[in-house]
Specification:
The chain has 79 residues and is of the alpha+beta class. The protein contains 4 helices and 3 strands; from the N terminus they run H-E-H-E-E-H-H. The chain has a domain of 54 residues: CBS-domain.
Length: 79
C-alpha cells in the first residue's frame, strides 16, 4: 500500500471564506478552484467551520433562511 502525504492531496492555493460570505460566492469558489469544501475562518484567520458541497445542496433544497457561510457551515471545525 502506498502512503500518501498531505502535500499529495492539498490544493496549492489556500482558499477560505468569512462567516458573512454569501452562498453564491462560496459556490463560485468551489467551482473555480475545483474543491469540494472550504474552511470558514474568523477575523483572526482561525478556522470556525467548513462549508461543503453537501451543505450547499442541503441548503439549496430546503430554500430556507439567509445563505451565508455562518448559516451553511458545519461547526466546530476539526483541524
Amino acid at each position: 500500500m502506498r502512503h500518501r502525504r498531505v502535500a499529495d492531496l492539498m490544493t496549492p492555493t489556500a482558499v477560505s471564506v468569512q462567516r458573512g460570505t454569501p452562498f453564491k460566492e462560496i459556490a463560485r469558489l468551489l467551482k473555480e478552484f475545483d474543491i469540494s469544501a472550504v474552511p470558514v475562518v474568523d477575523e483572526a484567520e482561525r478556522p470556525v467551520g467548513v462549508v461543503s458541497e453537501a451543505d450547499l445542496l442541503r441548503k439549496r433544497s430546503s430554500g430556507s433562511g439567509t445563505n451565508t457561510a455562518a448559516d451553511l457551515m458545519t461547526s466546530p471545525a476539526i483541524t
